[in-house]
Fold:
Amino acid sequence: MFKQFAAAVKAYGKAFSLVSNNNLWVYFLYPVAIFILLLAGGTALIDSLSGFLKSQLIAWINLPKPGSTGASILAGALSFVLGIGLKIIFFFVYSILLKNLVLIVLSPVLALISERADEIITGNTYPFSFPQLIKDALRGSLIAICNTFIQLGLVLCCFALMLIPVIGWFAPVFLVIINYYFYGFSMMDYTSERYKLNAAASMRFARKNKGLAIGNGFIFALLFAIPFAGVIIAPILSVIAATVVSIEAHQNNTPVSYAKN
Structure:
């Protein structure tokens, strides 16, 4: 598994070379547009939800509204802290969901760039088919949505495990690794789809090559953490890197190490 992990990490170097040598920079324009939309929509949603929940909490604890008769400095401070605290909580949850939202919305683009990378690497040609593109995009979106719910469920389980002595110390580590795995699996599935693997077979392939999935998801998460630029760079480079190692794994039908040119 460690060899696979190293292979997935090294594949990012080849992914960057593929982008540079084949003028694939245009694909980075799509995440820019998506990021602007998700940022604007997410900010508005967080403001709306935090404002609504703050007003409900203030009403529940019977806190006087700041500026009204009898409102105290303490009431104003509590209202301010509630507003800031709720925004932080909602922003944290949204930041977890954002990676999967990007993968869902970008599914058609990721399917196209994975196919283009496959053509460059193998020399195979895939005539453009709009119905097939829609099929690939829907499958990618469904897998990303399923992974989102699984990850949220695992987050809750890990929070519960944290309450158990000793075992709880390792829960955050397990959670991070599992998240890496699901991100990598989402990226690898585009290649599995072209190799005619159904969703169940794709899952088995990812489990067999879990080191590739975890390594790909690890770099994806690191890149995504870069402010602003990460959401633009991470999806495109990650799907190309996943395509590189997935092709090798499918061709060899065994766990692979990185093949040097």
In short: The chain has a mean pLDDT of 79. Residues 25 and 87 are 35 Å apart (CA to CA).
